[in-house]
Amino acid sequence: MTATIIDGKAFAARVRAQVAGHVTRLKDDHGITPGLAVVLVGEDPASEVYVRSKGKMTVEVGMKSVEHKLEADTSEADLLALIDQLNNDPEIHGILVQLPLPKHLNEDLVINSIDPAKDVDGFHISNVGLLGTGQKSMVPCTPLGCLMMLRDHHGSISGMDAVVIGRSNIVGKPMAQLLLGDSCTVTIAHSRTKDLADVVRRADIVVAAVGRPEMVPGDWIKEGATVIDVGINRLDAPEKGAGKTRLVGDVDYESCAARAGAITPVPGGVGPMTIACLLANTVTACCRANGLDEPEGLTA
Ligand code: NAD
Description:
Layout (H helix, E strand, L loop, with lengths): L3 E2 L2 H23 L4 E7 L3 H16 L3 E7 L5 H12 L6 E4 L9 H5 L13 H8 L8 H14 L6 E5 L6 H10 L3 E5 L6 H6 L3 E4 L17 E4 L3 E4 L8 E4 L4 H5 L4 E2 L6 H20 L11
Helix pairs in contact: 1-10, 2-10, 6-7, 6-10
Bound molecules: nicotinamide-adenine-dinucleotide.
């Protein structure tokens, strides 16, 4: 079987175009510009790259982008004061605090100080609870992007057997909740799972979110299954020249693509969907804050 490649880059461009259309309508019909504030503490190079590209894409879809860059030794009190200010700013509809935070800051405390209605990352304990009980919430961006791709590819995923490998709060757990919400039979596998290969072989849908390069081999994949690879791992690539690297996912792409019915590549699969979903969440938050109908197809 030759797998269909699920093109996350193209899909993300479609989502961003949809978001841009909604932003134009919000501006033209209601005089409202959705605003996203991103807070970065410290100078982690990877985080700086993410924040820059989030800001660029926010502006590209016509939204207001605000970046707050704080020193690595910023106190918890100062960070909480900034979040309070953003919570009370009517021009800001989404707040994202870039993780990881420096060690002296309590991540849970910081995330839970964001107004849940502006929590476009969907990590606030209220949003976690709302998602877990099937209520309207802000949904974490990466799992939301995975769900959108699955719905787009399959139409309905109701009744399918889904295995999520990884149980993080950011990806694995919310992914499992979303699949359950769409009536899949869901198994969450993790580092202590016995016979992972056997568990994965049962799956019609495999979502890999582990952070281990190419750990899922093709012979774990049921013929025709859909494979969503969330992993982003950087490997040395001396064949490309001295000091060069390449990105790989958590699944061994070649052997999995040979058995899967559909697969997301790395790069160009889940990654681009994550920022597109952040923008989608910001428009959704803006519509909810203003008592307007929220855009269809941009949330769970
Ligand atoms: P994490 O480290 O918080 O969680 C990893 C999970 O994998 C854990 O729950 C652990 O139990 C499980 N695990 C570890 N070893 C295992 C094994 N041998 N067998 C089965 N399970 C095992 O990671 P995370 O934040 O969930 O991220 C996972 C991956 O997804 C990383 O590569 C990360 O870079 C990537 N990621 C990508 C995006 C994106 O936008 N594409 C977003 C977030 C995370």
